[in-house]
Write a structure and sequence with these properties.
The structure is a single chain. The chain is α+β, with helices and mostly antiparallel strands and about 70 residues long. The protein has one domain. It is about 45% helix and about 25% strand. Strands 1-2-3-4 form a 4-stranded mixed beta sheet. The longest helix is centred in the N-terminal third of the chain and has 17 residues.
Length: about 70
């Protein structure tokens, strides 16, 4: 994916994190997955996170997403 698209996706998910309250959820329609905000990270299952890894940088992913335990 082009760098400018990755940056725009990162801006989008930063806004999602800023808008959601702790325990709030975000549904990613294209992936048909739901993420929950926990400790200022979006938490999802392995399938949900695999969709995110493709559209943001590794650094952003590691700082803002977490596998559901």
């Amino acid at each position: 994916m082009e760098d400018y698209k990755i940056k725009e996706n990162e801006k989008f998910f930063t806004n999602v994190l800023n808008i959601l309250v702790e325990g709030g959820s975000y549904g990613f329609p294209k992936a048909m997955q739901v993420y929950t905000k926990e400790n200022n990270k979006l938490v999802g299952n392995a399938i949900a996170l695999s969709h995110i890894k493709d559209i943001v940088s590794d650094k952003f992913y590691n700082e803002n997403f977490k596998l559901k335990e």
